[in-house]
């Protein structure tokens, strides 16, 4: 049972309009947003930040951004965000082989060195204490420009917020996210946990 009950999608019409973004991303409006709208300024600011962070300005693809989100969420243990991120990666065209082998991104041939650098950055930036060091910086600069690095850290930071929000809130997970979580993450022990 969540800490705070999500409101109806019709509760705040401005949030509802902005949240149409998630119908493309996930196929539904997340319960996290429906809970945030108890304070509409938070739900609207969050959706606008999400749109800005996930916009593609360089070579960081939508699929890679969602895989970065998954690595970050996996690092922090948020099962809700793990399932949402892998679902969005799937919907944004991540290769099937990458989805099936996301746990082995460091060694699996489906991932390029540029993707590995981005995903290692996500892992190190999501840890406490933060693990970003000169080696991570060197690897990033071998493949990405500064604007692309900013885009990646935007995703990592956005999911830092979401991981804390959803794990603390015990946000109820939606059926579509459960389906994707079970399909791609279940073989490694993923389950809904407190997000029932």
Arithmetic mean of pLDDT = 96
Low-confidence stretches: none
Helix/strand/pairing category: mainly alpha
Q: Please tell me what the overall shape is.
A: globular
Rg of Cα set: 16 Å
Tally of separate helices: 11
Binned strand content: under 5%
Major β-sheet, in short? none
Distance between the termini: 7 Å
> What percent of residues adopt helix (DSSP H or I)?
55-70%
Helix and strand string, N-terminal first?
HHHHHHHHHHH
Number of strands: 0
Protein name: Carboxymuconolactone decarboxylase family protein
InterPro entries: AhpD-like, CMD-like
Organism: Algibacter aquimarinus
Domain Carboxymuconolactone decarboxylase-like: 40-120
Structure, explained:
It holds the Pfam family CMD. It comes from Algibacter aquimarinus. This is Carboxymuconolactone decarboxylase family protein. This protein has 196 residues and is mainly α. The protein has eleven helices and no strands. α6 (79-91) packs across α11 (175-185) and α8 (113-126) crosses α10. It starts with 12 loop residues before the first helix and ends in an 11-residue tail after the last helix. The mean pLDDT is 96.
Short description:
With 196 residues, the protein is mostly helical. It contains eleven helices and no strands. InterPro entries: AhpD-like, CMD-like.
Helices, strands, pairings?
Layout: H1 13-18, H2 20-25, H3 31-36, H4 40-54, H5 62-76, H6 79-91, H7 96-100, H8 113-126, H9 134-143, H10 146-169, H11 175-185
Pfam families: CMD (PF02627)
Domain Carboxymuconolactone decarboxylase-like: 40-120
Protein name: Carboxymuconolactone decarboxylase family protein
């Amino acid at each position: 049972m969540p800490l705070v009950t999500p409101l109806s999608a019709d509760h705040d019409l401005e949030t509802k309009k902005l949240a149409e973004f998630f119908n493309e991303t996930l196929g539904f409006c997340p319960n996290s947003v429906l809970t945030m709208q108890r304070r509409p300024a938070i739900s609207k600011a969050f959706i606008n930040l999400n749109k800005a962070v996930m916009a593609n300005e360089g070579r960081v693809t939508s699929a890679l951004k969602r895989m970065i989100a998954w690595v970050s969420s996996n690092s922090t243990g948020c099962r809700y965000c793990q399932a949402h991120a892998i679902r969005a990666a799937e919907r944004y065209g991540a290769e099937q082989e990458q989805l099936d082998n996301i746990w082995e991104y460091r060694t699996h041939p489906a991932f390029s060195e540029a993707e590995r650098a981005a995903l290692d950055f996500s892992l190190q930036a999501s840890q406490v204490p933060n693990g970003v060091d000169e080696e991570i910086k060197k690897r990033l600069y071998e493949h990405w420009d500064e604007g692309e690095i900013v885009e990646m850290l935007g995703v990592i930071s956005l999911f830092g917020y979401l991981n804390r929000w959803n794990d603390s809130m015990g946000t109820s997970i939606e059926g579509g996210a459960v389906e994707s979580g079970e399909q791609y993450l279940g073989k490694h022990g993923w389950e809904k946990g407190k997000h029932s």
